Amino acid sequence: MFHECDSCDDTCSPVLQLTSMDSEGDILMKEYTKMMTDMIVLCVTLALSLFFWVISLTISTYYGTLQPVSPWRWLFSILVPFVVTVRALKKKSLDRSGALGALLVGFVLTMANFSFFSSLLAFFFTSSRLTRWGGAQKKKIDAEYKEGGQRNWVQVFCNGGVPTELALLYMIEVGPGEIPIDFGKQYSASWMCLSLLGALACSTGDTWASEVGPVLSKSQPRLITTWKEVPAGTNGGVTPVGLAASFVGGLVVGVAYFVTQLLLVSNLHFADPQWPIILYGGVAGLLGSMLDSYLGAHMQYSGFDVSVGKVVGYESATTRRICGKPILDNNGVNLFSSILIALILPGLAWWMWPR
Prior knowledge:
The protein is 66% helix and 6% strand. By secondary structure, the chain is mainly α. The protein starts with a strand and ends with a helix.
């Protein structure tokens, strides 16, 4: 009835042997299914990229001004955003609606310009990691704290909608591909590139400030409009640590854009200097965060609810108003901030850009 196992000194029953075999069979089946799923995804992606390539070739024969897009660019623009989105979905950085929105944003930005793609990745990965960091501290002060910071489609488009629209305009202007920032040779396209970079740096700076400030800051936040001390979590509250973090976050996005330019643009020596892109990202992150705080102080309601002991965004009998009016929510403030930075900051950059 019993026999010795080869892998141990204990006696094992046939039932345990069968259970072990079933378990190994399930593991093999899961690995096989995963492998087949990956193969199917790759084949579908290849088919889609070739299909779009044929379409671009057909269109280019009728419209001579349009250049066909390489099938490898189609493949990269479909496959890489898909892989990143699936990974984010598994890590609960996105919910299902957010994943669909991220797929669209990622595809458009990657197709338009790989520098856009690298800047988007810098924003997404750093923001997702910082959102999970210091969760215990953030939970104490944020009444709406969500574990993992899972983003939905509204949050994705409020942060990525402006860059997506700019990327589409960029492709209409010069087509998919990488170009140097050069106002003398590519005025409107350079403006669009800096607008897009500014919008992403603005979102990154605001996220870094709101995620790093509450964890590392030792001082009480001050309302940006009056400079009076306010409770942590108040819309419009800023700290020196948070402002510094917003500048560093923008720098990270600028570095990602600049490095991609160095790697992929061959004629940089004929264009204006590109290093100001890094500083531009930092300034956009800082100004974007300050603008977000200013709008939040005026257009987002903040009150202290004594029943929960936290700052909340709703009015109730137990809530004491701190600042703001219930006009916009956090997503609306983020959207307006990125729009204003995208519209205003490139003009200042054009005036100050070294030539």
